[in-house]
């Protein structure tokens, strides 16, 4: 271990003025004897969130170690323990109490390191997200010794704050018009911090993100042997966002394109896509638990910007964003579960929210600006399913229509997307 290099790193960080950060809505809690693990897709802002948390502590008793930094390359668990317990105290004159470990997968035997730090009473924050070890696995490896927090790209509220467009109030049609204009941009380009704040061409940056995720987190990490099949499946599933996906769909598409494949390889590749953390497969609700995880499932993207130039379908973009917001709110209510639903007769609703053993809300999503544009089928499906599922909390998220109506004895609330996203 090159101690001089590490001393320089610690000394430099202690003097470094941290940049002004965009405050994130995600509240990362701490519990004694458990590490707080921040997971999420690449480029979602996990390191920035760590810095935001770091600023709430006394910096003289806080150590931040970025294991992507060349000064910390090749360290094992014992090396890092020495850095925290000895070298930090030597440099700062204080004992570290709070430890931030960024890109932890680069440390040999990192699991033992984290457990040792917890046993010694340190407050520990952890992230990890490269092709060697994705953030989801960090949480899995520390099961029982960690609390996991999912960080997605900016929410619409964070997007507005980052662009300094968040309105102090919404008191006029002009205010609403401005919000809707910003929402259109947000749906098109998404909420990746660098895309929102950067001056580069947004579509070029998003294309680079997708290619990096495909090559590093899918091909390299999963050791994909057939790049042709891997790329086809990656692209096909991306294009299927906000739609129901089955392995048969992919199988038929491969046949039509003449792409050679193996059936077992196909199933494996589709399942492995979830490890990139830019795909979410949503189970269909059934009273039979075993059937909930079977195909077909609906697929959603971690950011609507990843669908840029794929399809010009506002309805699908809106549905995808509603799913992402539900995922964010799920973090505030860990016992809630999100499903899609379709009954035997084919009546379908977009989202079913369940808490413990009770279904607490049914949600339809539509790109409609007035009542006439909302299809009777969507409302009738909501009413039919509400009777089957014994749930009377019915919501339709629209583009621009707001009302509360009683239809066939059921009260239905219609809320514009911007208002629902901002929780107004």
Please, could you describe this protein's structure?
The protein is α/β, with parallel strands linked by helices. It has a domain at 3-150: Rossmann fold, CATH 3.40.50. The protein has 16 helices and 14 strands. The chain has helices spanning 3-15, 46-54, 77-92, 110-119, 135-141, 156-162, 173-189, 193-197, 202-222, 227-239, 247-257, 263-272, 289-292, 314-330, 376-389, 417-421, and strands at 35-39, 62-66, 98-102, 123-127, 146-150, 243-245, 279-282, 297-301, 336-342, 348-355, 358-365, 394-398, 403-407, 410-416. The chain has a six-stranded mixed beta sheet with strand order 9-10-11-12-14-13. Strands 2-3-4-1-5 form a five-stranded parallel beta sheet, sandwiched between helices. Helix 1 (3-15) crosses helix 3 (77-92) and helix 3 (77-92) packs across helix 4. It is globular, with a radius of gyration of 23 Å. The relative contact order is 0.09. The model has no long low-confidence stretch (mean pLDDT 90).
Give me some keywords for this one.
424 residues; alpha/beta; Rossmann fold; 5-stranded parallel β-sheet; 42% helix
Distance separating the two termini:
54 Å
Widest beta sheet: strand line-up: 9-10-11-12-14-13
Shape: globular
- The parts where pLDDT drops under 50 for at least 5 residues are none
Mean pLDDT value: 90
Which range best describes the helical content: under 10%, 10-25%, 25-40%, 40-55%, 55-70% or over 70%?
Answer: 40-55%
Structural class: alpha/beta
Report the top-level CATH class of the domain at 3-150: Alpha Beta
Tell me the radius of gyration: 23 Å
CATH topological fold name of the domain at 3-150 = Rossmann fold
Q: What's the architecture of the domain at 3-150, going by CATH? A: 3-Layer(aba) Sandwich
Overall number of strands: 14
Q: What is the overall number of helices?
A: 16
